[in-house]
Hints:
Blueprint: H1 23-45, H2 50-63
Helix pairs in contact: 1-2
Amino acid sequence: MPSQQPETLVAAEAPANHSDSGGRCWAQAGRVVGGFWGALAATAISPWAAGSAWIAYSGLLNNEPKDNDGNFLC
C-alpha cells in the first residue's frame, strides 16, 4: 500500500502592484487613521505623555509598507 503524503499548501502571493481594494488596504487605513486619533486622544488625556504617543504613531507610520516614492501601498 503506497504511503499517502499530505498535500502541501502554498500561500497565495500578493499581486505585484498592491493596488487591491481588499482587506489589506482597509487594515492599513485603520491603523493609520486610528493611530492618529489614538495619539491625539492620548495627548488630550495625558498631556505629560504626549511625546511618547506621537513617537509611537511615527513609528507605526514608518513600519507601514510603502512604494519607492514613499506613498502607502494602498
